[in-house]
């Protein structure tokens, strides 16, 4: 990897004339393909549902089937707040709505795994093997859903997902006055929640 970076840098230094647009595109494509081969570039995420191809929702009823715990209560709050922020649609925990999400915890899926399945038109169920699995399932639904002012479409992805690795983390270097060093605590909390929705379960800090 270091050798690859060195060779690219040498090419840019030796060149006495800027590369044309086409040449740069070819070079960047080659580097990207090499990085993908070494697992250094994340694969593209599942595309979101198209509003025209799925049930349009202006309101969402969220039902927690599993016994409530502080962690599960926070999972529900995150789902409701993200739906409201991204679409302006109303998220409710009782009463009627034109779409619904059921949340439950059932062992047997696999550690920190989740399953998303249809219940009825406009209603899906997210099953987590545990508290974390349920949160990751919520993240999957949020990423694959589509949003526009006043309405949203529930993501179409259905199936079971179990992490390949037990630890999936990030090292936010808190130095040189970067974002992690100076950002308000509220922004860092939001950032950590977003990481969790993607399936991260480890954060490593190094303090002098």
Question: What does it look like?
Answer:
- With 208 residues, the protein is α/β, with parallel strands linked by helices.
- The chain contains 6 helices and 11 strands.
- It has helices at 2-14, 21-37, 70-87, 131-144, 179-182, 185-197; strands at residues 56-57, 59-64, 90-92, 99-105, 114-120, 123-128, 146-148, 151-153, 159-161, 169-170, 202-203.
- Residues 1-19, 23-27 and 31-44 have low confidence and may be disordered.
Question: Could you outline the blueprint of secondary structure elements for this entry?
Answer:
Layout (H helix, E strand, L loop, with lengths): L1 H13 L6 H17 L18 E2 L1 E6 L5 H18 L2 E3 L6 E7 L8 E7 L2 E6 L2 H14 L1 E3 L2 E3 L5 E3 L7 E2 L8 H4 L2 H13 L4 E2 L5
Parallel strand pairs: 2-3, 2-4, 4-6, 10-11
Antiparallel strand pairs: 1-8, 5-6, 5-9, 7-8
Helix pairs in contact: 3-4
Secondary structure category:
alpha/beta
Percent of residues in beta strands: 15-25%
Radius of gyration, whole Å: 21 Å
Mean residue pLDDT: 81
DSSP, total strands: 11
Helical content band? 25-40%
Count of alpha/pi helices: 6
- Major beta sheet, strand line-up: 3-2-4-6-5-9
| Sheet having the most strands | 6 strands, mixed
The arrangement of helices and strands along the chain is HHEEHEEEEHEEEEHHE
Please provide a brief summary of the model.
With 208 residues, the protein is an alpha/beta fold. Helix content is 38%, strand content 21%.
Distinctive features:
globular; 11 strands; disordered N terminus; alpha/beta; 208 residues; three-stranded antiparallel sheet; 38% helix
